[in-house]
Design a protein that fits this description.
Serine Threonine Protein Phosphatase 5, Tetratricopeptide repeat; mainly alpha; 4 domains; 79% helix
Length: 306
């Protein structure tokens, strides 16, 4: 039985998607490469390879693939939506917005394009328009967990904590293995002063993703609010170990060292926080205080015997 090039490409493309879903991204790229070699005029392998490059953080390659997919099939909104997401990851919200607009012009019922455009508006600080787009995405696809999650984040930024909690709870109902939803709901609960329920959510986020630096940091804030400073220190230590370039965690850990009288270690943390974020006013204030306390302590030391 003779195998056609079309059948070969379909098979390779399918295998690439299977590898992608398994998280075997290099294997997925290999299959899409082979599909493109067989039929370089086909749209799907370029679009799918672009998605994989995006997951790997290779955004320039991802955009190149989406560009080629658009050249081959300019009437398909998917590549515009995907390229818009890549532009947004590259901190180019204006170009992302253009792509999401084009995707919606091609398919006004694309929930993914509305969600993406909502992300672009949120990135630009236009939370009202972001909420409208997330709402439209959810109306088109009520089970769309990503849109519920993003609407929850927008509500959190607007300090509408009850609405945020409702959105994150809906995400958790649909995707109980989504660590980010537990972490985000914990942040909303903590902001409301419900520290214990927040800690329970952070615990679950960490169980699902043991290297989740942000969840350790957030749990540290919550347990600190309950007066458990030793446990908070442990969480900030782990958050910094997992993500050493977090100036907020360094500043807060420095504050804990300051409370304990460990002035040199406090100053070291404040120094690093300021190095990572020049002009960080809180860390500068705390370091000045630590320097003053250290000078006062040194003046109080007895003079050496002569």
């Amino acid at each position: 039985m003779e195998t056609t090039p079309e059948a070969v490409v379909t098979s390779l493309n399918h295998r690439g998607l299977v590898y992608k879903d398994r998280g075997e991204l290099d294997c997925a790229i290999r299959e899409f490469d082979r599909a493109i070699q067989v039929k370089p005029e086909w749209f799907s392998p370029y679009n799918n390879r672009g998605l994989v490059y995006g997951e790997k953080g290779e955004l320039v390659r991802a955009i190149d693939d989406f560009n080629q997919a658009i050249r081959l099939k300019p009437e398909d909104e998917a590549a515009f939506t995907n390229r818009g997401a890549a532009y947004l990851s590259e901190n180019q919200p204006d170009r992302a917005l253009q792509d999401f607009d084009q995707a919606l012009a091609l398919n006004p019922r694309s929930a993914e394009a509305y969600n993406g455009r909502g992300d672009a508006f949120a990135h630009m600080g236009d939370l009202d328009r972001a909420l409208r787009d997330y709402g439209q995405a959810i109306r088109l696809k009520p089970e769309y967990a990503d849109a519920h999650f993003n609407r929850g984040l927008a509500c959190l930024r607007l300090r509408d904590f009850d609405a945020a909690i409702a959105e994150f709870s809906e995400v958790i109902r649909r995707r109980p293995d989504f660590a980010g939803a537990f972490n985000a709901r914990g942040a909303a609960l903590n902001a409301k002063g419900d520290h214990q329920r927040a800690i329970t959510d952070y615990d679950q986020a960490i169980r699902l993703r043991p290297t989740y630096a942000e969840a350790f940091y957030n749990r540290g804030l919550a347990v600190y609010s309950r007066g458990e400073h030793g446990r908070a220190m442990q969480d900030f230590d782990e958050a910094i170990r997992l993500k050493p370039d977090n100036p907020e965690a360094l500043n807060i850990r420095g504050g804990l060292y300051l409370e304990q009288g460990q002035l040199d270690r406090a100053i070291q943390d404040f120094d690093e926080a300021i190095r990572l974020r020049p002009g960080y006013a809180s860390a500068q204030h705390n370091r000045t205080l630590a320097w003053a306390l250290k000078a006062q302590h040194e003046r109080a030391l007895p003079a050496p015997n002569r």
